[in-house]
Amino acid sequence: MKLVMIIRVAFRALARNKMRAALTMLGIIIGVSAVIAMVSIGQGAQASVQAQIEGIGTNLLFVSAGAQNTGGVRTGAGDTGTNTLTAEDLAAIRREVPSVSMVTPTVNSRSQLVFGNMNWNTSVQGVSEQYPDVRKWTIQSGEFFSDSDVRTAARVIVIGQTIADNLFAGMDPVGQSVRVMNLPFRVTGVMARKGQDQQGRDQDDIAFAPYTTVQKKLIGSPRLQVAYVSAVTQDATYTAQQQITDLLRQRHKLTPNEPNDFTVRNMTDVAEAANETNNTMTILLACIAGVSLMVGGIGIMNIMLVSVTERTREIGIRMAIGARSSAVRTQFLIESIVLSLTGGFLGIMLGIIVSLLIPALLGWPTLISSLAIVGSVIFSAAVGIFFGYYPARKAAALDPIEALRYE
């Protein structure tokens, strides 16, 4: 019997029991759609974390004060009470560490900004003129302050979009004067909108001033809290981390037995850890969803075995008039593959629809994976072959005489 004829016979056999075929495919449909949806959620989470990390800045390291032992008590990173990070340290890093391209200190202050009869409480962060380049944050209007503003501790300020919307609604903030702790500051620019971070905090509710200005006129202290350091390349971040550690230990005159009185964190480590966690979760979710595929495959085998039993006399008649065992085996195998592939394609469509609905309904980011779609098609075919082979072999092994006697 020709292959085309075998396929047509197989389709006719499936068409005789449409409801049973549809219910048999349901397991495959649910399994494939679950795999695609789960992988989409996992990859969407991974892409979201990666975007958040890139939003902080590329090739980035954090150098923070603190983390020293004082009477058996280890202070935390960013603790300025120890005064272990100075502007001279950062100048030395910029000057003596070849794997570093840019450095900007940060000093935080919480202040009330006043413009006319409007006011807004926000974080005023003292930084250097290199901050936008280090953090990969562009200016929407105006300009960032200059190196001369930092050196002279000028009263200039750059505001985020949230502050601009609340203090200068319908106005251009650039060139306006705002009061910060009763001191007039000239607005030189407005940062581009960033939105919320992964913790839901508004990244646009912030203002930037020269760190020297914040130190001298807002907090009255020369201490530094954290410095952002940008390495020349992402691969150089580990080299920069070690070189910064060695340099600061030397400058702080620490003996080999003394712990660091500072902390150097590598954002590449954070990115890799986050990606590894998301990959593990994606694989776990896909494996859980894959159980549905296995259950669907067992359902196909069960139905095909029932079909062999129901069609025993039909198989006997076909073999009695000359059909070969291989033709019977091929027919049942094709029926199994058709059921699994059809279920697989319907599952792919359902999985894509679910993946598109999840962000709208639940607010979770998703990223549809072409690899998951291709893998689902291949796996569906494999399920049809694997779970359909035994019923097909059983049908082909029937004795025609015994099959004709079957009631």
Structural account:
The chain is α+β, with helices and mostly antiparallel strands and 407 residues long. Helices cover 56% and strands 18% of the residues. The protein has a six-stranded mixed β-barrel. A two-stranded antiparallel ribbon has the order 2-3. The model is unreliable at 68-81 (pLDDT under 50).
Condensed summary:
This protein is α+β, with helices and mostly antiparallel strands and 407 residues long. Helix content is 56%, strand content 18%.
**Strand residue content:** 15-25%
Order of helix and strand elements from N to C terminus: HHEEEHEEHEHEHEEEHEHEHHHHH
What is the helix tally? 13
Whole-number radius of gyration? Answer: 34 Å
Total number of strands: 12
Percent of residues in helices? 55-70%
Mean pLDDT: 80
Q: Into how many domains do the coordinates divide?
A: 2
Strand order, biggest sheet?
A: 4-5-10-7-9-8
Could you state the oligomeric state of the chains shown? single chain
Report the sheet with the most strands, covering strand number, pairing sense and barrel closure: 6 strands, mixed, barrel
Shape: elongated
Terminal-residue CA separation: 26 Å
Detail the poorly predicted runs. Answer: 68-81
Assign the structural class, choosing from mainly alpha, mainly beta, alpha/beta, alpha+beta, or little secondary structure. alpha+beta
